[in-house]
Write a structure and sequence with these properties.
985 residues, alpha+beta, eight-stranded antiparallel sheet, six-stranded antiparallel sheet, 20% helix, Alpha-1 2-mannosidase, GH92_a_mannosidase_put, Glyco_hydro_92, GH-type_carb-bd, peptide-N4-(N-acetyl-beta-glucosaminyl)asparagine amidase activity
Length: 985
Amino acid sequence: MIAVRFSSSFEEGDPVPLAGEIGAGPGESPTAKPGVGFTGLRTLRYDRPGRVRLFDVDVPAGEHTELSYVVFPERGTAVALDVELDDGSTLPDDLDPKALYPRQWNLVRRPLPPGRTVRAITLSGGEDAGWLDDVRIADRPPRRRDAVDRVRTTRGTHSGKDFSRGNTFPATAVPHGFNFWTPVTDASSTTWLYEYHRRNDETNRPRLEGFALSHQPSPWMGDRHTFHLVPAGDLAFGHEHETDRPYHYGVRFDSGLTVDLAPADHAAVVRFAFPGEAKVAFACKRGGVRLDPKRGVVTGYTWVRSRLSAGARRMFVYGTFDRPGRRVRKGLAFDTSGVQLRLATSLISLKQARRNLDAEIPAGTTFEQVRDNARQAWQDLLGRIELDGATEDQLTTFYSGLYRLFLYPNSGHEETPRGRRHASPVIRHWWPSTRRRTGAKVADGPMSVNNGFWDTYRTCWPAYALLTPRKCGELIEGFVQQYREGGWISRWSSPGYADLMTGTSSDVAFADAYLKGVRNFDVQAAYDAALKNATVAPPRKSVGRKGLHESIFLGFTPLSTHEGLSWALEACVNDFGIANLAAALGRTDEARYFRQRALHYVHHFDHRIGFFQGRHRDGRWRWSPEAYDPARWGFDYTETDGWNTAFSVPHDGQGLANLYGGRAALESKLDSLFATPETGRNPGSYGGIIHEMTEARDVRLGQYGHSNQPSHHIPWMYAYADAAAKGQAVVREVLTRCYSGSEIGQGYPGDEDNGEMSAWYVFAALGLYPLAVGSPGYVLGAPLFRRATIALENGRHVTITATGSGPYVRGLRVDGEPHERAWLSHDTLVAGATLEFELSGEPSSWGAPPPSLTEGDAPPRPLTDLTGHSSHPALSDDTSRTQVVLGRTASVEFTVDGSPRAVELYTLTSGTHGSPTAWVLEGSADGHAWQVLDERSGEAFRWPRQTRPFALAEPAAFPRYRLRVTGSSGRRLSLAQWELLAGER
C-alpha cells in the first residue's frame, strides 16, 4: 500500500511550485502525447534552472519513503530533483544523466534517509531544459509476491513507430499459446494495438476502443485474425486502475465499468460489470459476426491479416454468454449489470471452435478457475528461477522478461476428434474458405508459428534449451513440420513464409538445442531442413538463403543480393551450427565442408579499411578506402552499420582477432566502437532516419546499438580479446540503465522481438551468455544478483552466488574448485553446478578466452576453389542457375591455372534432370595417366540444384582432374557445378 506524503502534478489545487513555469507540456515526442503532462493537462517547464528551490515541505521520512517524479528532458539529461533535509544536507548519490532518455518521459525514484525530515524539494538542471510532472514523496514498502505477479504486460507499450521502448502490447495468454487477448487503444490498427500514452484522449486520460483477439508477432509484422469486443460506455481510465498480468488483464474505467479477461489456450473468459445495463458489441474489420440472442451465442469468422501475415486463412470464433440477451445493433444487451462471456477460436472450423471452448472452458467454469489455471501455468515456468538481492524494479524486469520469452513461439494446432491437427500455413491450397470451415489444407501433427529466427536464435532458443528443454523440442518439432509440408522452415514465421530479415537462423538454433541435449524432435528432418537451406538456392524470395546460387561458389555474397554482407555473415553462423550438428550425426564430409564455410567471413574482410564490406561479383569492393564510412547505415548491413558489423563473428572470435592482428588489436577495435558516438544522422541507403538509428544514438554507448539484436553479442566479444573485464563493465551498464521504465510502459531500449531483448537481460543478469550459438557452452560475466537458483527439468539445480560488489569478476569457483576460464560448458551447468563469483569494483585479469573455431595466431584460410578451364565451362561459372545436360554417363575434365594446390574437398551440384549416383574423381599430371582420388556409388541428391560436398581420403594436387559419372538417376544426367576446394599454398 502506497501512502502519499506530498504530491503535485501541477494541476489546479495542487501545491504551487516556487520556480519554473506551468505550461501545456512538450510540443512533440516520438512516444508520448504532445501538449500535455505525463498525467493531466499541466506540467512544469524548466529552462537552465541551475539549482532552485521548488517546494517547501515538512515531511518526515520513514523506512520506505522515497521521492519520485517524471521528467521530460528536451536538451541534455543532467537534470534531477533533490531534497534538503533538516540538517541542510541533500541526498548522497548523484544521478547518472545517461539514465534518462531525451524527448521522453522518464520515471525517477530516489530513496530518502529514514528518520530524517524533508524541508524542501529542489531542482537542478545546469544548461538543460524540459518538463517535470508528478512529483511525489510517498511510502513504498516492498511486497512479497510470486514471480508471475512481478510481471507487467504493459512494459514496452510506451512506444511508437519512431522510437521503440519495446513496441509490445499487453498480451494476456498462456505460455506459447494459440491466442493472445489484449486491450486496444486503436481498434482499426493491425500494428500499434495499444499505446501507453500517445493515444490519450483530450483530457489526457488513456482510453480503450475495445478488447481484441490477437496473434501479432510484432507491430512491424502486423496482426492477423483480430476480433473485437466493445463494451458500451465511456472507456477512459487510468493506468493505476489496470491489472496487467499474463494471466489476467483487468481495468476499471472512469465510468465505473469493469472488464476482466483470463486466457486459456484456444479460448478466454471475459467478465463485464457495468454501472447499469450490460451491453456488449462485436466488431470485425474483415469477417462476419452472427448473434443468437435467445441462447446468448456469438459466432463468426475473421480474415483480418497484415501484408506480412503469410499463409493466414480464416479463424473461426464461437462464444456463449452466461445468460440470454437481446439484440442491440451489432451487440447484445442484458437485463443485468454483470455478464460473463466464454469465447474460443479455431483455424479449422466453427465446429472445432466450439469443441475447443467445451474442452478448455466448459459451461459452469468460473472466471477465477480460468484465471488461476493460467496463473499456475505461468508460475510453474517463471518460478523456476528464484532471485535473492534484487530490487523491486529488477524483479519486475527479470520476470517480465521471462514472460516475454515464454510468450513466443505460438502453437498453431488444435486437439480434434482425429488427434492433433492444424490448418497449414505453408501448404498452398486453393480451396475457398466458408463461414464454417477453412479452405486451408488441414494436416496432422503439431505446428509452431510466430518467430523471427534472425532475432531469436541469439538468446531465446538457447534459453529454451537450458530452461525448458522438453518444450524446446516440442516447439522445434512444430517448425520442422513446416519443412515436411512446405519444403522449408520459415525465416520469419508469421505464420507461414514471410519474406523478411536475413539468414536461415533456425539452422543454428535447432543445432544448438540438439547439441545441448534436446532430443524430443525429429533431428534428421531438422538437419535435412538446414541442409536444404544451406545447399539449395530457393525457388522464391520468402524461403531459404538469398544469393546462395552464387555465394556457395564465390565464397562471398555479392552486391547483387540486397544486404549481401549480412546474408554472408549470418550464413557463416548458421554453417557453424550445421557443421557441429553434422559431426554429432556422423556426417563427416558435411561437417568438414560446413566448418570451412563457417570461415567465409574472411572473404568480406577488407584489410585496407579494417572492416567488413560488400563486394561485386568480380571481387571488387563496394567502397574505396577513401569513400568508406563505417558509421553509414544500410547498403551491405541489415539495420546497422559497419561498426556494429565489425564483430559479427561470434562463433570464431580467435579468427576475428587474428584478422585484426591479434587479441590486443581486437580489444582496441572494441574500445574504438564504444568510444565513437552514434549520431543517428547517417542513414546511408535507408534514405532517411529510421527508428533503429535514433534508438542506437540514445543508448549512448558509442556505436554500440544495444537497441537492436545484431549488436547484442558485442560486449561479450571482449572475452575473445582476453579483456573480459571491459565487456563486464558494458554489460553491467546495459543491465542497470537500458531496461528502465517498467512502471510507465517502457522497459526496453528498442524492439522486444519475440522475447530476444528479454532473454538477453535474463542471461546477462545471471552472468551467462550463449555467445557461440551452435556450440554447447556459455561465456561468463558478473551476475547482477546476490543469489540466483535455477530449477532444471532434470531435477538438478544451478546455484549462482555473488559476493563483493561491482561489475567486475575477480574470481570464480565452480563446484568448489577455482575456475579461471571465462566460459563454461553446458554439460557442467546442467549437471547441477554451483557458481560462486567474487565481484570487485576494479577490473581484473580473470577469465581466459573461450574456445574458438580457429586455433593459433594466423588469420583463417578456408579452402577455396581452384581456378582453371573446364571441358564444360558452365560447370565452373560460379552459379547453380546454369547447368549441363549429358547422357546417363559422362566425363568432364578440368585443367588448373597455374601451380596446383592440394584438393581436400570437392562439391557437385545437381541440375534439374537426372542427378549422378556413381562416379570416379581422378587426377593426372599429363592428361594421359589418371589416378583415382575418390570413388562413390549409391549416392542421391535430395533436391534439384543441391550442392553436396565430398572429402578426399588424402589431399591431392594435380594440374588436371577428371570426373567420370558412371551412374545417374534419370535418362539424362544434369549437373550445375563441379567445384574443387583446395588449401592455400
